[in-house]
Design goal:
Length: 123
């Protein structure tokens, strides 16, 4: 029987991080790794993304990955995530993954129209 795995991709863009992206393919879904957020902190993902976040469960949202912070210096960029190319309407803290899913984290400007589920209101 094949062990269940998921893929993870992070896109910072070269303006904010070098290298500008990181891909982790076939990350095992081990006990305790069930949500998109769990995947960020899973062992064996290298280099570590050192996620920062606020809240928990349905109110959890990611505020930083790899040292790149949401709305860093008021730049209007926020972390959003997609599963299988679609933006979920729930927090990454409760979005349960299935074997073969692909999770992408993208650092997007608020003008793009993408908003992270459970994100606090923008000031």
């Amino acid at each position: 029987m094949t062990k269940p795995t998921v893929n993870q991709f992070v896109d910072w863009s070269s303006e904010f991080h070098n290298p500008p992206w990181q891909a982790n393919d076939a990350v095992p879904i081990n006990p305790g790794v069930t949500t998109a957020f769990d995947l960020l902190t899973a062992s064996g993902v290298a280099p570590s993304l050192n996620p920062q976040w606020e809240g928990s469960g349905a109110g959890l949202y990611v505020t930083g990955l790899g040292g790149v912070m949401a709305n860093q210096d008021g730049n209007g960029y926020w972390w959003v995530y997609l599963v299988n190319g679609k933006m979920p309407d729930v927090s990454c803290g409760i979005d349960v993954l299935a074997s073969g899913d692909s999770v992408a984290w993208d650092y997007k400007h608020v003008s793009s129209g993408l908003k992270q589920a459970a994100h606090p209101p923008l000031a």
